[in-house]
């Protein structure tokens, strides 16, 4: 893996050779050298030869990302905003145009990968987010296993499930999947990379030893998928089993189920990379989008947008669709790219603060950015293929009577009058999962709900029904209890109410 090193050196030589060396470029070589020394020291803290070799490989990948970051910083290569165009018609195919699957046995060429590195910290969780119970006492992982098992048994095929964990979720995940030992399903897990956080001021790594505390390390985003697939041996394993296609999605997206039409489209068109996109709503203005940049299809993330253009980026007029992170990848093409040119995914700089208050940066990448390395396009899919659970308001919707389960798949209740789901906004009192569970004795019936806003210290009793637009606001120092069996239709409640007063 030391092949990555000369690229940094030649870059430094190039930097020295220019006639006007600006300060940033001059310091780039120094920073790269300092980082390389620190990395050598980190690698030196590992005793076991096999562990050391794997860790060295990982650190070389990190170092390559770091030198790219330095180079981009020195040259400040930003996207030229005026060159960004909306994708052409042939770059995004409407889902309605796809043909039905010709042969269910095509599924034997498929493997399913779930990105399972998230901790659910924004919802107040401490373990793997995929272990959260979301519906009928079943977790994200339970639902995925149920879906793929049904796919395998009903079509008599063998679609394996692969879980990419992070060092944060690996132990948890291994513990959870033990219970699936007797299912009709093969589960493979592998760990994504672990990179050192970088001090913002000194540009040196935060950890001092390879076994340093978890908080000094980070998983470098789902764009690390390709590196981790290659180095873990999972890519070669899949190819040796005759798998040709990989369907990738986030483990918290409950809409990301295997779709045979999309697989068929991939086979028919010979596409190497498909990205599922869907129409933007007000809730999705920050989602990454596909663009045409100098005739090439690319993913544009909000973190890459210059500050003066952020409002343009959020506008639904120019960018009508966003990336669901449901990706379909040709494994043979992936092997070719990884072994030939390698992946250069746009670097996303994620600023954080360490426990000791020091500013650090995490260099991350996004899986969808790989589209530029392949012959690929977008597919504009229906909204029901994007049902992520990012907050407790999403959880309320999923747990409610709007959805039922069929073989682990969420199905919208036929009695719902509208195709759209209600807009739900829960205030800070409902942000953490423990609070959310405490404040709903039972999830309300919301089949006929359009909009719900709840803020402040509010508690819901059992068998509450909400219809139309319901707004409940408990002011500072006040509390509202909504009693068992209560029906609220187009109501605004505020103040300090015991609902009997209505």
Notable characteristics:
502 residues, alpha/beta, Spore Coat Polysaccharide Biosynthesis Protein SpsA, Chain A, 12 helices, 26 strands
Concise structural overview:
Pfam families: UDPGP. By secondary structure, this protein is an alpha/beta fold.
Distance between the termini: 71 Å
**CATH topology assignment of the largest domain:** Spore Coat Polysaccharide Biosynthesis Protein SpsA, Chain A
Helix content: 25-40%
| Number of individual domains | 3
The count of helical stretches stands at 12
Helix and strand composition category:
alpha/beta
Strand residue percentage: 25-35%
Mean pLDDT rating? 88
| Unreliable segments of 5+ consecutive residues | 1-21
- Please tell me the CATH architecture of the largest domain by its name: Alpha-Beta Complex
Classified by CATH, the class of the largest domain is Alpha Beta
Q: Overall 3D geometry?
A: globular
Extended strand count: 26
Question: What does it look like?
Answer:
One of its GO terms (molecular function) is UTP:glucose-1-phosphate uridylyltransferase activity. This protein has three domains: 2-75, no CATH class; 81-385, Spore Coat Polysaccharide Biosynthesis Protein SpsA, Chain A (Alpha-Beta Complex), CATH 3.90.550; 392-501, UDP N-Acetylglucosamine Acyltransferase, domain 1. α1 (5-17) packs antiparallel against α2, α1 runs parallel beside α3 and α2 packs antiparallel against α3 (49-75). The chain is α/β, with parallel strands linked by helices and 502 residues long. Helices cover 28% and strands 25% of the residues. It contains twelve helices and 26 strands. Mean pLDDT is 88; it is low at 1-21.
């Amino acid at each position: 893996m030391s092949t990555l090193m000369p690229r940094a050196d030649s870059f430094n030589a190039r930097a020295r050779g220019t006639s006007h060396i600006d300060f940033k470029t001059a310091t780039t070589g120094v920073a790269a050298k300092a980082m390389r020394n620190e990395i050598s020291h980190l690698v030196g803290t590992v005793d076991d030869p096999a562990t050391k070799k794997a860790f060295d490989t990982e650190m070389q990948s990190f170092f390559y990302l770091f030198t790219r970051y330095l180079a981009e910083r020195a040259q400040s290569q930003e996207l030229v905003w005026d060159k960004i165009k909306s994708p052409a018609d042939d770059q995004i195919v409407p889902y309605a145009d796809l043909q039905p699957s010709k042969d269910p046995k095509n599924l034997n060429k498929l493997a399913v990968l779930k990105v399972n590195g998230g901790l659910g910290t924004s919802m107040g969780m401490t373990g793997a987010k995929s272990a959260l119970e979301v519906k009928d006492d079943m977790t994200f992982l339970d639902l995925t296993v149920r879906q793929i098992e049904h796919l395998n048994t009903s079509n008599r095929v063998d679609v394996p499930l692969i879980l990419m964990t992070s060092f944060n979720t690996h132990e948890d995940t291994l513990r959870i999947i033990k219970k699936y030992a007797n299912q009709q399903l093969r589960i493979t897990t592998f760990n994504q990379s672990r990179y050192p956080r970088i001090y913002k001021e000194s540009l040196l790594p935060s950890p001092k030893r390879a076994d340093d505390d978890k908080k000094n390390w980070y998983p470098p985003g789902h764009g690390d998928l390709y590196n981790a697939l290659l180095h873990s041996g999972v890519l070669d394993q899949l190819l040796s089993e005759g798998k040709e296609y990989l369907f990738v999605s986030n483990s918290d997206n409950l809409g990301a189920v295997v779709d045979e039409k999309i697989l068929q489209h991939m086979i028919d068109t010979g596409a190497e990379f498909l990205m599922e996109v869907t129409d933007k709503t007000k809730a999705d203005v920050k989602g990454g989008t596909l663009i045409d940049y100098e005739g090439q299809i690319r993913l544009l993330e909000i973190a890459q947008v210059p500050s003066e253009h952020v409002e343009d980026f959020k506008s639904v007029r120019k960018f009508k669709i966003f990336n669901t992170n449901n990706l379909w990848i040709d494994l043979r093409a992936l092997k070719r790219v990884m072994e030939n040119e390698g992946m250069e995914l746009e670097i996303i700089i994620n600023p954080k603060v360490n426990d000791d208050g020091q500013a650090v940066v995490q260099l991350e990448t996004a899986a969808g950015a790989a589209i530029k390395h392949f012959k690929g396009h977008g597919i504009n899919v229906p909204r029901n293929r994007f049902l992520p659970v990012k907050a407790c308001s999403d959880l309320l919707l999923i747990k409610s009577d709007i959805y039922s389960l069929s073989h682990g798949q969420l199905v919208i209740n036929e009695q719902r009058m509208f195709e759209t789901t209600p807009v739900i906004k829960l205030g800070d009192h409902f942000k953490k999962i423990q609070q959310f569970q405490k404040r709903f004795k039972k999830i309300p019936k919301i089949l006929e709900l359009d909009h719900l806003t709840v803020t402040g210290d509010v508690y819901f009793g059992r068998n509450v029904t909400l219809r139309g637009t319901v707004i409940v606001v408990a002011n500072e120092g006040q509390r509202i209890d909504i009693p068992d069996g209560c029906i609220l239709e187009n109501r605004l409640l505020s103040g300090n109410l015991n609902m009997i007063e209505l």
